[in-house]
Amino acid sequence: MRVGVMTGRQAGAGPTAGRPYRGPGAEEEQGIHLRRRLGRADYPAIAEVRHALRDMLGGRDRPSTADVAELLTSELVTNALIHTDEGAVVTATVGGSRLRVEVGDSTTVLPGPRMPTADEGTHGRGLFLVQALADAWGVRAQGAGKVVWFELSWGSPQ
Q: In a 10 Å sphere around its CB, with 0-12 CB exposed, 13-18 middle and 19+ buried, how is residue 148 labelled?
């Protein structure tokens, strides 16, 4: 298990392979990156990813934004570990005024939010939360799998 925080163009292979995220508001060449490879059914790693994300974000924004980032990251990582037979890759990037978190896995089924039923207990709410709390989110096919991502506005502490 390895957690890495990298800056600029030091990121390794994967969804942000060797480059900072280049999306809306990411004009800056430098970004802050977190990359974590998770093994199959590595459920203890969910908390480790949350803590690494919190450490990466530090005091860069209001605590509530970091809380939302942790919650949504936990949901995506949990979904990846529950619904795949292989591991997942988590990448988080702060660039410009955006935080982008991507979770890639080896399943080609593209998920979508659905209304959970009362019989499901707490299951089935992950993407519902992502849809409700993220500024933007989506799913894209990538190689032999997919990447589920979200973005949050990010700024200076107030």
A: buried
User: What structural domains and CATH numbers belong to the chain?
Assistant: 29-153 (3.30.565.10)
**Among 19, 12, 38, CA closest to 106:** 38
Rounded Cα distance, 11 and 94, in Å: 12
33-55 confidence digits (pLDDT tens): 899 999 988 999 999 999 999 88
C-alpha to C-alpha distance for 104 and 88, rounded to whole angstroms:
5
Q: Is the pLDDT of residue 1 over 70?
A: no
| Residues 31 and 94 sit within 8 Å (Cβ to Cβ) | yes
CA distances 35 to 16, 51, 53, Å, are 9, 13, 10
Query: What angle separates helix 44-57 from helix 63-83, to the nearest 10 degrees?
Result: 150
What is residue 67's three-state secondary structure?
helix
Reading the block at residue 1, the tokens are 């298990």
Whether the predicted model's global pTM rises above the 0.85 cut: no
